[in-house]
Amino acid sequence: MESKAKRNQESMRPLSVDPIAEYREAVRKQLNNEVKKIIDLDMQQAVYELLEERKNAIRQVGEEYRTLIQQIVREEKEEIWKKAEMFQKSLVHVGL
User: Fold this and answer.
1) CA dist 44 to 21, 32, 39, 40, 48, Å?
2) pTM for the full model?
């Protein structure tokens, strides 16, 4: 909303400054600044929240991989010991 002051046709200068228009302009600017601050703060909070969520997701996936790797290692160890026992039994049956 722009203030419209009456202008002299020859010089294009304002004849008088409308105090109500000035007040409205000042209020409009102040409101715009406050809205901008609120939006900026909300955006900062949203970005922080998304970064935290991303960190948590990465941490969770890493923990799941760690657990999966530990499970695979446990299973492989069990297989190794089963094979070792089978080898020992086969040696006993052969008579060595």
Assistant:
1) 34, 18, 9, 6, 6
2) 0.54
Are 25 and 4 in contact by the 8 Å Cβ rule? The answer is: no
Distances from the Cα of 56 to the Cαs of 47, 48, 59, 61, 67, in angstroms? 14, 12, 5, 9, 16
Contact 24, 4 (CB under 8 A): no
Using CA of residue 33, residue 36, residue 42, residue 48, what is the dihedral sign?
Answer: negative
Residues 10-51 pLDDT 10s: 555 555 678 899 999 999 999 999 999 999 999 999 999 999
**Which tokens go with 6?**
């009456």
